[in-house]
Amino acid sequence: TKYSITVQASAEQKILELMNAKRTEAGLQPLTMDNTLVQVARYKSNDMIQNNFFDHTNPDGTKWTNWLQDIGYKYTTTGENIAYNTSDPVELFNQWWNSPGHRANMMNSSYNKVGIGVIFGNGKYMGSQEFSN
């Protein structure tokens, strides 16, 4: 590791609450936090901090889907949201919500599980959401 990090667990929980409130308002089932997806999301956020990149595809060419396959995680559909800022970890939710593609992932009725990983390191909050069914 190049940078020391701290996991922002309270922000992860708040983002879940905000997202589920929007889903419930729209008549959708709330997402449940999945521990495996949380670990993948935290790993993704940390990887982007440690290796100074911001992309769904890692510098080595792998994606979160490769990691899910490597650990034998079973799903039929999956998606990923990523965001970062230097001010507030909960603001990551608003960044996702205000982006049509990211909002579509959060409101996708095919998903029933999520992992949220918010990490602070190298002067920024990095957030990842991993969705599955």
UniProtKB/TrEMBL annotation:
Domain SCP intervals: 16-124
One of the GO biological process terms: proteolysis
Gene Ontology MF terms: peptidase activity
Keyword tags: Hydrolase, Protease
Superkingdom as given in the UniProt entry: Bacteria
Keyword Hydrolase included in the entry's annotation: yes
InterPro entries: CAP_dom, CAP_sf
Keyword presence, Nucleus: no
PANTHER family: SCP DOMAIN-CONTAINING PROTEIN
Protein name (database record): Serine protease
Organism for this UniProt entry: Clostridium chromiireducens
